[in-house]
Amino acid sequence: MKKKIYLIGLNLYSVFLALQIKSKAKNSNICIIEGTGNFINAYKKVKIKNYVLNPGFHALEDIRSKKLLNILKKEIKFNKIFKTRGMIIGKELISHLDDYNKWPKNILRKFKIKRKRVTLNPIKNLSYLNKKYLRYLTDNYFGKENNIKYTISSSYPWFFPTNYNIISNDEAAIFNKKIRKKKIKHAFVFPKKGHFSEISDALKIILKNNNIDIKLNNPISFRKKNKQIFFDGYHDLNNPKNKKIICIPVKPLNDSIKKEKLNKSIKKEIFSPKLKPIKYYTALIEIKNYIKNDLDKFCEIIVSSEFAYGLIRISQYSDIFNIKNKKIYQIEFVEHSEQRDIDEQIKNIMLLFKNFIIFKNSKNNQNVKLIGYSWVRNIFRPNKKYIKKITSNTISFFKNKDNIIFPRQITWPINSNKHLLYAEEDYMKKINKFLND
Known about the structure:
Blueprint: E1 4-8, H1 12-24, E2 29-33, E3 46-48, E4 51-53, E5 60-61, H2 66-72, E6 78-81, E7 84-89, E8 92-95, H3 105-110, E9 118-120, H4 131-141, H5 152-155, E10 164-166, H6 171-180, E11 188-191, H7 197-209, E12 213-215, E13 221-225, E14 228-232, E15 243-246, H8 250-256, H9 264-270, E16 278-287, E17 290-293, E18 298-304, E19 311-315, H10 317-320, E20 327-334, H11 342-353, E21 357-359, E22 368-379, H12 384-397, E23 404-405, H13 416-436
Parallel strand pairs: 1-2, 1-15, 2-12, 7-18, 9-10, 15-23
Antiparallel strand pairs: 3-4, 5-11, 6-11, 7-8, 13-14, 16-20, 16-22, 17-21, 18-19, 19-20
């Protein structure tokens, strides 16, 4: 009889984990259950006027994503752009590859950036870095109300010269180190038409070809009674003979555990006050009548600027989506406590653009034109103590169950490549043994 294996939560991690299980146990009966009606919501298209775009800058990095590309190339064609990453600090445009000597002197002096080699310890980062600089980065993106100690994870290596290194065995850190040492030529890879929904479509075909079933619109909630876990929303999950793998990120998983069935002490430990949502937007900006455009040196540009609060990223929309005879950029920004009016926020972002472009007619206000913007999603900024607490408690909720495993506690968005690597690692270290016990 075939094994019945349920993966609860549809994301890239559960898709790659299902494929990994199927490749090792071809007779297994696998089903992925998803609460929403979307197949990989992160790749869902956004429409602005007559343009269709990704919900933010989506890209695979050449070499780093070799395994993932090998899987996808069976069903999809890709284009490659040989450009690196840039960064805007204030009104200064810097390459991700620039060493100390190429950085603007005003930034080096103002924020006391060191010339000597600096190795950062993620646990003790504040003792190595200028707190004024961390405060500056935090204020521009997160707002003054946020603590600077959470900034390093979102700012390194983007806002430091190449003499700053970090102690880490993470594959992204190792890859970026090689890029910054120029051991690898940086290139980004995109589906031929630019849309990452093409990857979703390809994965649907790959799953179908492997006889892996998908059940959408089946929200699952969890409750515990007499130490037994019950799955509400899909009857067959309560069959003790079936194996269940929890693939939902920690925060939504925590929200799916029924509060009213828990005693007061557990309820107090697991649940906290509702987090304030922060609106995340994307927009398209068209540039006209220019002679020189320094933004075009880069495929994406990470931003931290007091002249454009909340602006996170600028990317090359027209290049990625193969739009001829137009220069269009996609931007991503979040609502910010220093700039409550979204129209004023966009106006400031458009003014920042003008610092990096030489126009044919500098008096023409239509040189930088907003095509439109769209809300993408809400994001949250929980503190690390809260995330650590709910992670610990969700692990405890599913602990020591013969037919249930919660192998990977994903606490924040991760890139496509990491989903694949985590799925491979978890299969080898945990899932294989779990399925064969």
